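Margin note from the TA: students keep mixing up input and output lines. Inputs are the sequences; the output is the structure of the whole complex. Example:
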Amino acid sequence: MRIVFIGPPGAGKGTQAEKIIAKYATAHLSTGDMLRAARDAQTEVGVKAEKYMSSGQLVPDDILIAMISERLQQADCQAGYLLDGFPRTIAQAEALDEMLEQNNTPLDVVLELQVPEDELFKRLAGRGRADDKPEVIRERLVAYTKQTSPLLEYYSGKGLLQSVNGLGSVEEIFAQIETQLDCYK
Ligand code: ADP
């Protein structure tokens, strides 16, 4: 299965992604994790990305597109994957479409985890990551609304979007995700 997982920061994508990976045995491509690893290793990409990440802005599209294009060619992605944190802009979504078209490997589904903004702010403020300072959180939520939420329309127009309510227990939310994903197995 080829899945795109979309949701605002703090929606609980990380937690649900772990459960999806475990049950559906698919590769997990988290661009946040990839960028944090690059930053910690101080690679060229990591050094460039750092200033955007620490201020809550999106890292430029060309960096992310190159990173994912390389990653998708690796052996563990051939049987499917969960894309978590990519695409985050229309330009990234269009670049992804192009890559997938070339290889004749279309997406199966785009899963959206929906959580209201006041709840997101509460959750993020309690998390304590370096980019979880209130002004950075605000910036990340703005980036989501402006740059990422247009993807919902983009993918619903292609008939790929399935939305799941991100309020409730981890198990309740995962049960809804399973119901959706079991349609594509
Ligand atoms: P969040 O917890 O906000 O969902 P992630 O862990 O997915 O964040 O990503 C952390 C940061 O990495 C983002 O705030 C952004 O700066 C950068 N980032 C991750 N994925 C992308 C992407 N697809 N495009 C641009 N920037 C990205």
